[in-house]
Amino acid sequence: MAKSQCGSARARKAGLKVGPSIAGKRLRQYSKRVSGGAEVYLAAVGEYLALELMDVAKSAKAPKTKTLNQQSLFQGVSKDDELAAFFGGTIGALAVPAIHYKLLPKKSKKAEKAAAVVACDA
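^ thats the sequence. predicted structure below, dont judge the formating
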């Protein structure tokens, strides 16, 4: 008896690695009726975008490293004009760590006085 390949016929016919049913689940969050062609198209676009991101990250990584990291992805997107325009400045620079002021250690009285003296001298 042959193995059943349920749900992979559309991906196989379209030559995709990602199943269109995953894209269909996301599309159904916005509309009750979704055609099969829309699912395949969205899966193809997502797969192309992922491959393009991996390609620019691979070209931006250091030559001796074997793994891709967040920094190489950011550098690759910032170097590619089309992807930089697509992401619109959301990716392209390393994230600056923002720590809420309440989480920072409290300054001692000495440090506050020294800061006040420096501010008065200026």
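The mean pLDDT is 79.
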